[in-house]
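DM from R.C. (forwarded with permission)

"hey, sorry to bug you on a friday — could you get me a structure for this? deadline for the figure draft is monday and I only need the backbone to look sensible"
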Amino acid sequence: MLGIGDAEHEESAPGAPTLLVSKLACSLVGKTQTIKILPGSLLHRAYGRHEVTEQFACNYGFNSQFRDKIEKGKLKITGVDPDGEVRAVEISDHPFYVATLFLPQISSAPETPHPLIVAYLVAALALPTPAKKKQSS
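My reply, with the result:
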């Protein structure tokens, strides 16, 4: 998708030459942060707002050296922190590909499900089901 064949994650391949996901300058474990959401994105449609507050449990994130490259492809940056650091991305022509550094499941409960979990389920239910195979008698 980005044309980076040797892209790696620093946690699993710390010595790799191309770290698309790298250690954050400051850990977000146990932190809550405001996220600015790109209008028209899946995130925006799910929340119905331009800004949300979410909880994090991560030490790794998107390597900003690749920001220009990512913004030219189908993978779109749709959520950033107040400093403009990437916190969420989406694939623009996919029914529901959303990747976040925050964890929607932390603030979700059966009686009050998180908006992203609801949006994911709605998107899944809207997908066409595979054609049923005819059973031979």
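R.C.: lifesaver. The chain is about 15% helix and 25% strand.
me: no worries. The CA atoms of residues 109 and 117 lie 10 Å apart.
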